[in-house]
Amino acid sequence: SQQGEEDPQALSIQEGENATMNCSYKTSINNLQWYRQNSGRGLVHLILIRSNEREKHSGRLRVTLDTSKKSSSLLITASRAADTASYFCAAATQGGSEKLVFGKGTKLTVNP
Amino acid sequence: AAGVIQSPRHLIKEKRETATLKCYPIPRHDTVYWYQQGPGQDPQFLISFYEKMQSDKGSIPDRFSAQQFSDYHSELNMSSLELGDSALYFCASSPTGTGYYEQYFGPGTRLTVT
């Protein structure tokens, strides 16, 4: 990937636990977006954080952004079996079309 | 709410054949992006259009071309298909291409080249 890495690559937790996924990127960004993908299906937009924001919440999701370290984290609280999916961060590059550069994704398994 | 529409959803082609993938963005979205996701890979940017003009180009093979039409729908044309072209192809749309806008993805077209 042009962009960077996601950490961990795979995460297995029990229902009710929290899941934290980390993402690093390399370029200057306008915003960073998180997506969910169920087993080779479509990409579902979860949350967008702007480059001038440090933290954002949406329901059970909490995203942080540290532009000095070029890193972001996604926290899912009180996880459910239905949260089982792959999670990708995607950085919208500055300038041009704001194409998204994706990280390699974290495969989350939530065990009932 | 209207979503991004892609057709066909599944496509099977043989090597050296051609394929055309279509994308219909969310109404009033003027920017369209195409991404390719190989098996077990992260999505990779191919090409984008803003107001019917190509706005950016990524790692798109010369065998591929794309355009955006006056009604904002976009088509990705792929010729001389190779086995390695087998992938999920996503189209995404967003409103006005600068600023802080989410990209909304279609369900994807799964292309299998045999």
Task: Describe the protein in words.
The complex is a heterodimer of chains A (112) and B (114). Helices cover 0% and strands 57% of the residues of chain A. Chain A is built from no helices and 11 strands. In chain A, strands 2, 4, 5, 9, 10 and 11 form a 6-stranded mixed beta sheet that branches. With 114 residues, chain B is an all-beta fold. In chain B, the strands form 2 sheets. In chain B, strands 2, 4, 5, 6, 9, 10 and 11 form a 7-stranded mixed beta sheet that branches. Chain B has a 4-stranded antiparallel beta sheet with strand order 1-3-8-7, with no helix packed on it. Chains A and B meet through strand 4, strand 5, strand 9 and strand 10 of A and strand 4, strand 5, strand 9 and strand 10 of B.
Overview features:
heterodimer, A: 112 residues, mainly beta, 6-stranded mixed beta sheet, 5-stranded antiparallel beta sheet, 0% helix, 57% strand, globular, B: 114 residues, 7-stranded mixed beta sheet, 4-stranded antiparallel beta sheet
| Average pLDDT level of chain B | 93
The count of helical stretches of chain B stands at 0
Oligomer: heterodimer
Strand content of chain B: over 45%
- Secondary-structure-based class of chain B equals mainly beta
Radius of gyration of chain A: 13 Å
Quick gist of this model?
The complex is a heterodimer of chains A (about 110) and B (about 110). Helix content of chain A is about 0%, strand content about 55%.
Question: Secondary-structure map with pairings?
Answer:
The complex is a heterodimer of chains A (112) and B (114).
Chain A: E1 6-7, E2 10-14, E3 19-24, E4 29-37, E5 43-50, E6 55-58, E7 61-66, E8 71-76, E9 85-93, E10 100-102, E11 106-111
Parallel strand pairs in A: 2-11
Antiparallel strand pairs in A: 1-3, 3-8, 4-5, 4-9, 6-7, 7-8, 9-10, 9-11
Chain B: E1 5-7, E2 10-13, E3 19-24, E4 31-37, E5 44-50, E6 53-57, E7 64-68, E8 74-78, E9 87-94, E10 104-105, E11 109-113
Parallel strand pairs in B: 2-11
Antiparallel strand pairs in B: 1-3, 3-8, 4-5, 4-9, 5-6, 7-8, 9-10, 9-11
